[in-house]
Fold these 3 entries.
Entry 1:
Amino acid sequence: MTTPYEIRPIGYVRSPLVDRETAPKQGFEGAPDAWLVFNPGVAEGLRDLAVGADVFVLTWLHQSQRDVLAVHPRDDPRNPETGVFSTRSQDRPNPIGLHRVHIAAIEGPRVLVRDLEAFDGTPIVDVKPVLAGGR
Amino acid sequence: MTTPYEIRPIGYVRSPLVDRETAPKQGFEGAPDAWLVFNPGVAEGLRDLAVGADVFVLTWLHQSQRDVLAVHPRDDPRNPETGVFSTRSQDRPNPIGLHRVHIAAIEGPRVLVRDLEAFDGTPIVDVKPVLAGGR
């Protein structure tokens, strides 16, 4: 049950955010617009995305530490240490980022989104529709 | 930007669901309760999970086809073919499952959840809290 699996990025984030010191902790706390730049090979999978929709974007937080199991939430030492699976810490065993974003524009294989707190160059691994009830 | 990354499962799903023909398409459509069985090595990360909370569980849908970019949603040929990134199809380039579930019980490194539509044996890759607004 511990076979590793291979994530193959389908694109990357183009954003003015360059490091974790300056990035907001969550997109809805004031992240700038960002472009999702997809590999041409996955264009067919994007064809039904629509401007105005909210989607979940999954990323691979490649600057993370994977051996961390407890953190002070929001990198604030005043917050009590908490198990990572009760936080959105980027440091965790499998550093997958889950971001709910709003699609503002689509230009071929590039998608402009609001409220994405990922750094420039972050690999994208998936995009999913938001279902009823925010699921 | 196409460097592969390695997912290392942190546990697996123990569920009465055994194949895609009999499983519901979404957990809230009537999935049975399931146990999340975590590896002992990640127990510290679980310590703040609480009965009664909703969390996102991320899985690796290991029975999926990764070369699929368009599908008939819900495996129903009457539904028009749709780009996978506008569907929750398990067949997609990086078959990560995103499941919002309700924690019903916790017994050490085993967590009982409601509404999980994953098959028995599905690897678990992450658990995250649900933030305000279902994010």
Entry 2:
Amino acid sequence: MPITIDASFAFEVDSPTDALLQFEAVASDGQTILASKTHLNGAETFNRVPAHDAIGERIWLHANRRIEVTYSAEIEISREFANLEKLSALALHQLPGEAVQYLLESRYCAAEKFHDFADREFAGTMGGARVSAIRDWIEQHLTYAPGASGPYTDAGDTFIARQGVCRDYAHVLITLARASGIPARYVACYSPGVSPPDFHAVAEVFLADPEHEEGGKWHLVDGTGMASPRDIVKIGVGRDAADVSFLTSFGPSSFEYSSVRVEETA
Amino acid sequence: MPITIDASFAFEVDSPTDALLQFEAVASDGQTILASKTHLNGAETFNRVPAHDAIGERIWLHANRRIEVTYSAEIEISREFANLEKLSALALHQLPGEAVQYLLESRYCAAEKFHDFADREFAGTMGGARVSAIRDWIEQHLTYAPGASGPYTDAGDTFIARQGVCRDYAHVLITLARASGIPARYVACYSPGVSPPDFHAVAEVFLADPEHEEGGKWHLVDGTGMASPRDIVKIGVGRDAADVSFLTSFGPSSFEYSSVRVEETA
Amino acid sequence: MPITIDASFAFEVDSPTDALLQFEAVASDGQTILASKTHLNGAETFNRVPAHDAIGERIWLHANRRIEVTYSAEIEISREFANLEKLSALALHQLPGEAVQYLLESRYCAAEKFHDFADREFAGTMGGARVSAIRDWIEQHLTYAPGASGPYTDAGDTFIARQGVCRDYAHVLITLARASGIPARYVACYSPGVSPPDFHAVAEVFLADPEHEEGGKWHLVDGTGMASPRDIVKIGVGRDAADVSFLTSFGPSSFEYSSVRVEETA
Amino acid sequence: MPITIDASFAFEVDSPTDALLQFEAVASDGQTILASKTHLNGAETFNRVPAHDAIGERIWLHANRRIEVTYSAEIEISREFANLEKLSALALHQLPGEAVQYLLESRYCAAEKFHDFADREFAGTMGGARVSAIRDWIEQHLTYAPGASGPYTDAGDTFIARQGVCRDYAHVLITLARASGIPARYVACYSPGVSPPDFHAVAEVFLADPEHEEGGKWHLVDGTGMASPRDIVKIGVGRDAADVSFLTSFGPSSFEYSSVRVEETA
């Protein structure tokens, strides 16, 4: 069953400003783009560049007035996914170089200070069972509360305040996974189950690949429980929210609106 | 004139622990390894993996007792370098995808809040002249003070406290460059002018490549003034110090010593 | 010339909640209350208690629905004030016990890390001349920007971001005074020159009393320059904004509005 | 059974420096000073001033060389103490003015963000039973780990890292009590059960006074479990550790040593 996406957003600048956009579905990683249409109304010039870890693309814009972005796409999800509980972790010293950045501290996910908490709270679990225990802990201890957090809220703040939105849920999950020795990254995405409909964020953890002995693979996990690997349309990945945003303006701009509609096509 | 490096360090673990090491000179980026020797005494198993941005290598170790690392190398530096003052910046919307991560916020270099300061303090400068003005500001406003900062000190802390070591100098330089719209990254290195001799850290900024019209290139800058592009031996790069450390232990370990000797060979 | 104040604000609670209010002019410290009227509409019970350092009063409320507070007053200011530039500081070891809390670190004014900056930036000045130099620095380096800061912004954040509102200006002034060995506190107040009209905040520094040899005294200073000691009507004092707020709700509440009008009566 | 205290510490300054000391037992609050002797070797001048909330005294020193402080005392403890579990809390709107500062946020105990955690983790408990539940939670979740925290560690950091020393235990207890609507303060003290012997820190919470209907009273609680109200000799109180330190130097100084011996006299 394909997934249909209709998204748009607009912002305005008073003086010439560069902006970085990232809102299109990735054409790999278990998803196929059946159709897609992107309009950038008002942009003078733009350049497409590979996004973080060369997964998806970012668009550089030069703007000097109102910019409206509209995007529609039809996506087929075909990713394999395994029973998280059963997946084993790779020994740290067997991790490939590309996974290491997702084990280290990042802007919103400073994991080192959480080692003791993770070791104690999730004692007896490893690999996928550890990630599953972390997801359960998040479900039991965090409250979904729009407005309770802001753009500078980090995983530590959310761990204390016990509330936040998808971004914060993903940050806590990533942080506790890293504190458990499991590489974890941030995934900006679309998903039909998100309520109210909006850009969404989940996590990806690097665990064993059930298909290939000794190999590792990224597995999607949604801390909020609203999306599942079967209906997540990836936009991009990063070490945390600092790396994947649908709009980053490098100069004063006023944000006007965003609208997201995602549906599973019958 | 080749540069000779003799470095060693040791640490001990009580129970089996994985550790990530990064201390060898990079075999590219304007430096040639004439000779080198690495010993890892006490390690059971180890794996080499590409380091951040595939520049240099990290070594994964599995240790269950005392580990002593010794490294000696002879390196020839042949990098071109330009007059920083004269280099122009690339327009943001012309930056290649690979440079973008170095423009965004990272663990120790959260640049967004510094926009106003950078705009005002360095008004009238752009590109290389801006970076040069930042370096001058650092020289005038920071005091080199071993012990004044710690492993969790970030650029904001150093900007307030006005003191720190090479790591902190690099973080402030990187942060103010990013706040000026210039991609900047952290470079762990060896250099003969560092006093007292130790692992060193500098910054690299992405500015125009004087050799290729419309292209960009990384240029070395040392906030402390102790090293120059001519005598910097790169070990690795990262978004900040969170990404490049000569030793990261993923479990309890006791650090014993480190010793670094770097000389320009006559 | 008396000052006339008309202030009101309202908030609503769904379930029984206690709240702490502080909005009435202090009846001492160089100001005389010629007339005043306070209405607390909707409060079930309330208790008046002395506020911080026994300057002014706080009102404890028990609320279980919409509360609307209206306050009007006519105040005569008669405080003596000296030429700030000429005031000397007391030696630290001569400070009275009551002043010490205003020298120590507080929630939003952690001064220790600013010692080096203060020593260097304001070298050669002491006492009132130091405070005056701090006020000038603030005038030159901060931009008044409603919306740029929030309830958890501290002096360090503002020092970095270089923008904020009266609360943030007061925090930076207090912090730099403390870092200079001068006790400083936060003063919530009304003043006719505040634009747009609102609750205001300034600082008070403890320096020599020109009238009494060897004695000390609190002197008002407004970092924003909008108010002067002659037209500041004190509501209360504290170590920083954590201690003086017109409304602190100890439970969920929705804030409805606040309105402040302050005029010098002809 | 009286308690005997022998404490000493020394520090050195190169240039004339003022310092604030607080190390003597309070002569009230349920403790009687049977005998005491204070020596300040090396101090040029000193002044005694009342300490925070006029409980105990601080000593202002002017020093220009090595200072050695020795203090010995014999103290009788006679404080009444109640069964914590049975004490009720006062309604917030019945709290006296003096208790309010201990309900508000302070440097190391920013309690607001902990409301949700406290409400959920300790649901169903109030007053003394809530404080007792907080103390039990601390006992189960924190590890006493000298060296794991530093002078700038706050309650949030400790809540995340799950380790610390007496200072950190007290900060977490105070923070969770405030987040529960119970005024709480920091108490620097001596106690014979502290191991290894050192200056100690506990908390005090403001709850009902079992002797006086409708009145409130401060009750001692030790998060570490090493001391009990029967053998705590108070030195002073404050909103947190920022307010009570045996030595605060207002200028460069080098700390030499401290030694504390506390015994219950047979």
Entry 3:
Amino acid sequence: MGKLRVTVWNEFRHEKESETIRSVYPNGIHQAIGEGLGTTDFEISYATLDDPEHGLSEEKLQNTDVLIWWGHKAHGEVQDEIVNRVYDRVLHGMGLVVLHSGHFSKIFKKLMGTSCDLKWREAGEKERLWVVAPGHPIVEGIGEFFELEHEEMYGEHFDIPQPDELVLVSWFEGGNVFRSGCCYSRGQGKIFYFRPGHETHPTYYNENVRTVIRNAAKWAAPTTRDYPKYGKAATPLEPIKGYNG
Amino acid sequence: MGKLRVTVWNEFRHEKESETIRSVYPNGIHQAIGEGLGTTDFEISYATLDDPEHGLSEEKLQNTDVLIWWGHKAHGEVQDEIVNRVYDRVLHGMGLVVLHSGHFSKIFKKLMGTSCDLKWREAGEKERLWVVAPGHPIVEGIGEFFELEHEEMYGEHFDIPQPDELVLVSWFEGGNVFRSGCCYSRGQGKIFYFRPGHETHPTYYNENVRTVIRNAAKWAAPTTRDYPKYGKAATPLEPIKGYNG
Amino acid sequence: MGKLRVTVWNEFRHEKESETIRSVYPNGIHQAIGEGLGTTDFEISYATLDDPEHGLSEEKLQNTDVLIWWGHKAHGEVQDEIVNRVYDRVLHGMGLVVLHSGHFSKIFKKLMGTSCDLKWREAGEKERLWVVAPGHPIVEGIGEFFELEHEEMYGEHFDIPQPDELVLVSWFEGGNVFRSGCCYSRGQGKIFYFRPGHETHPTYYNENVRTVIRNAAKWAAPTTRDYPKYGKAATPLEPIKGYNG
Amino acid sequence: MGKLRVTVWNEFRHEKESETIRSVYPNGIHQAIGEGLGTTDFEISYATLDDPEHGLSEEKLQNTDVLIWWGHKAHGEVQDEIVNRVYDRVLHGMGLVVLHSGHFSKIFKKLMGTSCDLKWREAGEKERLWVVAPGHPIVEGIGEFFELEHEEMYGEHFDIPQPDELVLVSWFEGGNVFRSGCCYSRGQGKIFYFRPGHETHPTYYNENVRTVIRNAAKWAAPTTRDYPKYGKAATPLEPIKGYNG
């Protein structure tokens, strides 16, 4: 089996506009994420909002096994046509890992069917992520919990469909909890939402965060099978009394 | 507790255009569904595609506890604005029962986040619906299975998210199976998809079908609680070290 | 519909042995729970460990719609024969609400198929229970969260099967989280696990706790249908080629 | 990563007692299953009921990543001590693939928490297994459905907890349906129940059946992480007001 082809998509605006954020992620959040994946198991490429077609041409997506998505302040600028293209690829099997503020991206909301709204607070508070599904491959190599000293808070109620599998739950210093690692399938594709990663904190350098993203990319890898045949199935598989269709 | 306010929505085109179908449902599919609900527990009203605002004004929806939806050939004519209005009401708690070809309605696809595609065949074949969740309130009063002598076939793969609860599975004479009774929650709202009901068959006069729809309407009844507060939650519930927000 | 017949089962040892605990629950935890249910919708009776057959005769269980279970220090004294009797009734439709340290009862472990182990700490710390399923009938009448000033801590990992529906998640002052409100179905029966209720704290007088237990009892009410027929089904429903069974 | 260590457990009584069955599986069902797994990805060993400790010594289980289980007529002869040993290993991460009549094994019932009862009929009828989770790794390499010309029928209601993931649904010639491929997690272990495999039919030579079992073994592979720490956690992770524990 060859390497998994991962495309890391980043809005890449904060890093250009704010020196503070640039100092945390000098090459952009996407590069920090890609660096964390490493090249042993992955063939990594990047795409950003301001690339032509947001870097997500039909060809690019056809050659992507797993797409990682970070966006925040410019969700509205992502063209519907590209959203629909990504959506179609997910239903056909491409994995999707949605990070942090990507909860409000068009693609995540379209796949979830809910508002994906939540509570939030920027107080640089402590977050402790607890493993609630200890046998799940996404938390392999993670202890019973891990901590992020300073993060933005996301709190319940998080308006998502009940996850197919809930893997992580966050405790926040300020008194909130959050379902932080959520697995879904849509069509032939697998989707993982992972909470951490505010742009002002060095979260994507954290080894536990990197392990989770690496595991999630592997978990979300497509299976190789034909897309189901939908539509008219006139010829029955078994005889039907009185029917000669 | 007063009666549940149920609005039955029907596309209501087949019945006008085809004498054959009109002979099955002379007053429209919606009336047959409403008649099956009965007025003991429900206060029933009707809405159809060709009514102003498709019969689904803001006021009408605010006064609807559970919306039942039957549509087929004119999904594309349902205005996006009305779809968004129904969507918003579901997230705020209104129940939604989607019947048969409503699987391809805009509102169901929007709430599911998938294509909702399936296999189908019009061969008037036998369908046998098996109860796979015998403790579920939606199948109260139903035996181990029930049969419909002649129905359109819907077959797997049915491209829906994994149901929160799977209640019924259909066996078809022609060799197919189908997940025929599927429960979901979205926001504060409950959604039930129920397969049977092709326009050429007298399915909505069937006592078992009526029992399931009646139970589903009760199951999908809204709970009475405030909509969650989303967005900025600047004031923490607990002190955060170094934060005076 | 008549009143729901609820039996509240309590180990009833702590209250007899400790004056401190007796001062919190002078008539036993069961009485405080029953008082919280009220008699408007429920016909309440009580059963305790030291009653003959632990108060759970075959007849008693046949006349119980929902059983509420509180146990802690004497799980081992509950006879296997009675456990099997309760188990059988749950599979046949009786609802079961398991409270707090009941997580380690024989009946809960038998129904879950896991160790039901967890982390715990008696530090009288603050617990805040967040609603994560805002449309669920079990949290009707509850705000976005509610607090218990002093409770025993139960922390993840909680070794249970993934709940069919997760309704509440607890935040603890000492840094832990817990899945505090978990729905399951087993056979025809519905089971709700609800975390709070350490014997040294007046938790079962708390109005929010009482509301949840009241709602849970209603949610767990049996449906009225025949038990499925299992075993040999020699006569096919459809003809089988070459078979004349 | 080395090869996955799979132990195939077989009751191995039918094959000894019946010449008909022996003619189908001359070396026992276990050997046919093992042959289907192949040695490319697996290191295979065998264990049977009449071996000392049923072939499942503590050491053997410690060196088993995934256990495959076929049993039928002698479930009662499996010693409780061995059942508990297997159970403990599953909670600690060992995968378990339960085949066909293994639905009534002590170990499966203990892990499910239900009766695991079902309808059955030996009429040698046709079974068609439909994929309902097309992106799931367990059905990689399988078409939209596959057929077994002659099999025992298992029909709903199948008294299992709702699967975490439902992968396959069977259509039977005689008019029944069945949830034929069911995923669960228990503790750190993953469990897959797979329906086909009556002892009188050459089902375990079928290429699709073999593919599913091979995929299931890989899917059920343990993750490598420490078992969670349960029990007293006296020292809080965060300061608790008024507590110096």
